[in-house]
Amino acid sequence: MTDVRHSGNGKPRKQIHLAAHFPGVNNTTVWSDPQAGSHIEFSSFLRFAQIAERAKFDFLFLAEGLRLREQNGEIYDLDVVGRPDTFTILAALAAVTDKLGLTGTINSTFNEPYDVARQFATLDLLSGGRSAWNVVTSWDAFTGENFRRGGFLPQEQRYARASSFLGAANELFDSWSGVEVVADKTGGQFLNTDAPGTFAIRDEHFDIQGHFNVPGSPQGRPVIFQAGDSDAGREFAAASADAIFSRHGTLDAGKAFYADVKARLAGHGRSRDDLLVLPAATFVLGDTDEEAAEQAALVRRQQVSGATAIKFAEQLWNRDLSDYDPDGPVPSFDPAVGENTIAKGRASVRMHTDPVATARQWRELGAAKQLSLREVVIEVTGRQNFIGSPATIAATIDEYVQADASDGFILVPHITPDGLAGFADKVVPLLQERGVFRTDYEGSTLRDHLGLPAPRVRDVALTGGRAAS
Amino acid sequence: MSDHLHLAIALDGAGWHPAAWREPAARPRELFSAGYWVDQVLEAERGLADFVTFEDSFGLQSTGFQGQDHRQDRVRGRLDAALIAARVAPRTRNIGLVPTAVVTHTEPFHVSKAIATLDFVSTGRAGVRTQISARAVESDHVGRRRLPEFGVDDLDRTDIRAVVADLFDEADEYVQVVRRLWDSWEDDAEIRDAATGRFIDRDKLHYIDFQGRHFSIKGPSIVPRPPQGQPVVTALAHSAVPYRFAARNADVVFVTPVDAADAARIVGQVRREQAAAGRSEDTVHVFADLVVFLDTATESGPDRQARLDRVDGTDYTSDARIFAGGAVRLADLLASWQQAGITGFRLRPAVLPNDLGSIIQNLVPELQSRGLFRTAYEATTLRGLLGLPRPANRYAATPEGALV
Questions:
Q1: Which residues, numbered 288 to 317 in chain A, qualify as contacts with chain B under a Cβ-Cβ cut-off of 8 Å?
Q2: Same-domain status, A220 and A139
Q3: Predicted pLDDT at A400
Q4: pTM value?
Q5: CA dihedral B44, B338, B351, A466 (to 10 degrees)
């Protein structure tokens, strides 16, 4: 009998990390499905988290956007619009879960380190050490219009500020070592120091000093995620993140990305195990591969309606195409060059680095396969990463991880809140049989689940009442 | 309105007396854990309190107004109040949850969405207490601006009065922004119209386009309108400028009278400011804050206060009237202040859990027997408990949009 716990080359098989991305405000989420539930009621988050925890996932992941998206000067209305406050939902989920990690996306541009550090230290204490922070940056004046300082940050400085911000937050997290609270009733000593939380930070972006007011938390610092894909983003991750949330979910792109970021670690004095690579991944599960393929095509058509196809084309062509027929051919003219002014609050428009060339590819694809504009958009955008029977998907995920295309996946279901139930019930047991996914949680903190070292020794007694109720 | 008065419990650390954490029943090692806070709020909920408040600050607690006292014998350190409230929400059913938001150092956009989300998480039990921070040590923690160092004795100086007035002016704009953002989605904006592919009716989302001296905020919120429409806004006020701020912006004003006559005077002042703000038709509660040391089976309230003072080494003082005694006398006091126009009370237990327990076990039944307090929760939202109607949306063009 073959021992599936070892890969062919004798190396021990890597353990897979799995996370649950709450469905987001883009067209991956099929809100029109009869099964689709609320994106704002807490009951949806509760159910989603409980499915993930039942399946022993490492963590739940919440995205964030600080201004509603717009296109053609109007609020974009074809996708889910609106979502709750990240910290508030994660703190509430800490009450209804015991082990699941709680990862929140929080912007480093439109916040201050003292405030964010207070909130993550609090979340870590209230969850018994399960918090994680996906550090994102933004610079656009569009988002800035919702905040005191407006769009104050030049694009080229966004990672410099993010790096300073994270450094400042880390100094705040570290300003309590975890042993200060002694609470000795008879001796009358609450603290063993007269200056807890002392810090002083002065650099190009911050000039702050004083005393941090949240005692040390179980993890010391939240687990740090980074999601940017640029060279600066990868360097930022290699220097200071515990995990990368990437978008390279295919085998070849994943391997290339994985090799790239792992190679950067040594330059920052870190080992290859210090940074996990966790791409986002969509999936469609069926009883058989054929059924899954049919279902996947159906989902793609739900995700890309005619109206959505026009909006995607407008993002590429950088102009109004509302009179265009999505069931007709790809537009024969070239996109408007220059700054993209049609869509705001959306990262994807920045990925069209050469719109004229991309439009040409779309036209050629349409001509070669006799596809309408909508069919081309379906073809070129967001095909699901994993399509197949439970056995096929389990084998594929295992193959990707063992081939160093990733250390696991952040799964993005297309149905809220039950889109992970099938994966949890049918794929997870197969991964467990293969010996590559936990059958129960071994530790209690997110660092434990991810196999990341604690930043330093903690006083366990301080948090002895952790998340008790 | 009924004869009932309203009760809120002010939660802070181990209680309001600085030596509270040394009492036998105190749980000082758990002040930074979820279980402690869940237990306190469940106790207040057993007593049918309207809501609990959670104190907060952007710095360590300290004895004086400025600087740090570096004392090691008192509770120092706290958790973010809004996150405590969120952590407690799924474990409670009826009680309102009112965390403090320090408006001087935070973004109205963030706080608006946090409180709106707390309202979703608690299905309509969220409020917020808006508080300025005038401490230089706290402004140094944020670094966006530096406030001058001054003491309570300096509050009459012209330059310091201008600084404080400006902080309240900023707070005033802040609450306007928060309230507009709560209304920036009409209740029926989410349509999920599969036929047209539209998730929302974008005509029912509104830019707030707020332009003030301190803020320029576009909107709309990223969070839909919360269940209560407008979560409950509260503020503590001690003098003319904050009375005006609170009367303009809050649903519940916490004040600190020393006796019934003072209560009548303060209520009159708040009501005049309320009228001046054009809010005469609105329900605005005026709650009196009281620190309470209640009698126990073995020790009178005054004896407890004196003993705790000896333990701490100083005589406890407070901005609020300190009551030490039995539940019957406390009920007498509440009833007489109610006659002076006070509509509710925010009780600050000197010791947790002791004084909170006494409030629930002794004061509440006494008030109930006098017909002054509810015997069961009569509403499912905090606005409902406070007799506040669900407000129309200021941006709704049609009654349908306002009322769904």
A1: 305, 307-308
A2: yes
A3: 97
A4: 0.96
A5: 30
